[in-house]
Amino acid sequence: MSPTNTDVPSLVGGFLPTPVPVAEYDRCPVTEILRLIGDRWSLVTLALLGRKTYRFNELHRSIEGISQRMLTRTLRNLEASGLVRRTVHPTTPPTVDYRLTPLGVSLLPPLSALADWAVRHGPELAAARRAAVLPAVE
Amino acid sequence: MSPTNTDVPSLVGGFLPTPVPVAEYDRCPVTEILRLIGDRWSLVTLALLGRKTYRFNELHRSIEGISQRMLTRTLRNLEASGLVRRTVHPTTPPTVDYRLTPLGVSLLPPLSALADWAVRHGPELAAARRAAVLPAVE
DNA sequence: CGGTATCCATTTCGATACTG
DNA sequence: CAGTATCGAAATGGATACCG
Predict the structure, then answer these.
(1) What is the CA B62 to C1' C14 distance in angstroms?
(2) pLDDT in tens, B4-32
(3) I need a surface site. Which of A30, A42, A92, B52 has the fewest CB within 10 A?
(4) How many degrees, rounded to 5, is the angle at CA A35 between CA A116 and CA B121?
(5) Which chain B residues in 21-60 sit with Cβ < 7 A of strand C?
(6) How many CB atoms lie within 10 A of CB A92?
(7) Rounded Cα gap, residues A57 and A71, in angstroms
(8) Considering the entire predicted model, what is its pTM?
(9) Are B55 and B97 spatial neighbours (Cβ–Cβ below 8 Å)?
(10) Looking at residues A41-46, what average pLDDT do you find?
(11) Identity of the residue in A6, A106, A122 whose CB atom sits nearest the CB atom of B29
(12) Which residues of chain B have pLDDT under 70?
């Protein structure tokens, strides 16, 4: 009802048929976006592109540890989902830059909300992990 | 500064050192939560548990297509992160129920914000995918 | 500069069978 | 009822080399 709900967690529209049909679930946009950005490199990439336009190698240098292959794959993925636009400038040698599309920009606020939650509750998450791997001497 | 920012996407606190150090990035709580819930079954599981407490087989029946093994793994994962609490009742046969912890409940609003975004922009995402796999006859 | 192509290790997922 | 054990398939990620 309300344009943005903050107190009532809707999660997939506010209702859920049970059993949840697996086919629908897999095609659910919420599932898709989480799987899209839940991989190793998408989040940093989006975070950087949220700040400015990057050239390929500039991005490569900006993300420590990423291989050329994975950077390409990550960018192509985000591009295929409409979050990133790839622009080739016909110079010699050719230069390519990447920027967020308006759709990509619109993703940042909700993503930041999740990020804020994670930062706030990071200690609790870490504590839970520690408690889980050390079920000894209580 | 503001308790919840909606217009300025902070993403990991509002600044990013470049190059982004891979070790820090991997330990970043934002990365961790995304990878945690970015798998195949965590989102539905959380969505269901957000509604009520479930017994194991009840959950199993409620999620079409999930195997016993994956349900167990998913629940154990969420439990190890402190989002879900597992309670064993010493009856015969033993019954076990799962519910969200307060931490798990606190995750629902930001997750719903992302879900709302996905639902709103689902058509655009789908259109981008279609345009990407059909780069023919423009 | 901005990629591909190849190959391999690791992880994830799912099916099936069995258990206290 | 609520799992565990085992196995194999598939997806994911990374290293290296090469290309227009």
Answers:
(1) 18
(2) 444 444 555 567 888 999 998 998 899 99
(3) A92
(4) 75
(5) 39-41
(6) 5
(7) 10
(8) 0.90
(9) yes
(10) 96
(11) A122
(12) 1-14, 134-138
